[in-house]
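Q&A log
Question type: sequence-to-structure
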Amino acid sequence: MNLTGNTILITGGGSGIGRGLAESFHALGNQVIISGRRRRALDETTAANHGMKSLTVEIDDPGSLRAFAARAIAEFPLLNVLINNAGIMRRESLLAQQPDLADAEAIVATNLLGPIRLTAALLPHLQTQPHAAIINVSSGLAFLPRAQTPTYCATKAALHSYTLSLRAQLCSSNIEVIELIPPYVATHLMDGFNNPRAMPLEKFIAEAMEIFKTHPTPPEICVENVKALRFAAETGNFDTIFSRMNS
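Response status: OK
Response body:
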C-alpha cells in the first residue's frame, strides 16, 4: 500500500485508534475523511488537522450507510482506501441477558454488519481506482476472547474470517486487503483509557504505522503487544493465556 497520495475514508475517525490513524495518514500528505456518529468529535478532530474532512453516519443503519457511501463517492471521487474502524464494546452477562438482546444486536450491527455493508457499497468504486486498499480493524480478542465481552469478541473473530475471504476473492484485483489487529489499547472503548495495562495509544499508532511502511505491506499488521493473543493457538499457549485473562 502506498502511504501517500491516497484519499482515505476512516470510520470511527473522531477518537481513539481511528483518530490516531487519521492524523498519521493526514500528516503523510493523504486526503483523509473521517466519519462517525458524534459531530462534536469529528469537528474537534478536523479543527486540529487542517484540510481533514468529515462526514456523519449511523454505521448500524443500512439506509444511512448506503446514502453515506454514495455521498462519499460523490464528494471524494478519488477515494481509494477504506479503513473499517468503527466499533463498540460492551460487557454482557449471558446469564442475565435482555430478552431482546439489544446490546448483542447493536454490537453485531456496528462491528460486523457495518464493515460488510460499507465494503459492499464502496467495492464497485474502489475497483475503478488504479490502486486501492481495504483495511479492517479487528482485535487480538478475535483470536483469544475476553469472556466478559462475548459478542464483541465474536464480531472481531467474524471480521477476521471475512477479511481472509475478501482478500482471497480480490487477490487478482487492484485492491489490497489488510487486517490491523490491535492489542488492549488506552482508548475510551470500555475501560482502557486509564488502565495502566493498556498499550498507550500513541505508541500503538507509531508502531503500526512503521509496519505499514513495510513493502510489500503485510496482510496483517501486528504490533509486538498483540502477538501473544494473535498466535496463542499456534504457540500452544491458548489455554494458559485464556485462563489468566478470564480468571
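Response note: The chain has one domain: 7-245.
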